[in-house]
Amino acid sequence: MLTEIDVKATLKAKLGEEIEDYLILGTCNPSLAHRAIDIDRQIGLLLPCNVVVRTDPAAKGMVIDDAMDPQVMVQVADEPKLRAVADEAAIMLRAAIQSLS
């Protein structure tokens, strides 16, 4: 994990707004990011680097882990060479999410 953004605390401090616990974890793998950027310099906008961990406001005690499907990066960029990077990223994201359980 590279970064952690506490969205709940940020919204409270900056806007005075209250939301459920909501963290954005920056989980980019430098090696995979480098490979993707070598293929397409604009791909940094689409790298699947974030995992969101949040409580479900509708179900007390329920924690939700979300991450973007790395194949979305391939589809949006329309660059087939990114598929291998996305496949590896998907494996790593699944492992990261499972480790949170």
Provide the fold topology.
Blueprint: E1 3-6, H1 7-15, E2 22-26, H2 30-39, E3 50-55, E4 63-67, H3 71-77, H4 83-100
Antiparallel strand pairs: 1-2, 2-3, 3-4
Overview of the molecule:
With 101 residues, the chain is an alpha+beta fold. Helix content is 44%, strand content 20%. The protein has four helices and four strands, in the order βαβαββαα. A four-stranded antiparallel β-sheet has the order 1-2-3-4. The two termini are 16 Å apart.
Write out key terms for the chains shown.
four-stranded antiparallel β-sheet; 4 helices; 44% helix; 20% strand; 101 residues; alpha+beta
Rg estimate, integer Å: 15 Å
Q: How would a crystallographer describe the biggest sheet?
A: 4 strands, antiparallel
- Give the strand order, joined by hyphens, for the main sheet: 1-2-3-4
Measured as a percent range, the helix fraction is: 40-55%
Low-confidence stretches: none
User: Strand percentage, roughly?
Assistant: 15-25%
Quickly describe the structure.
The chain is an alpha+beta fold and 101 residues long.
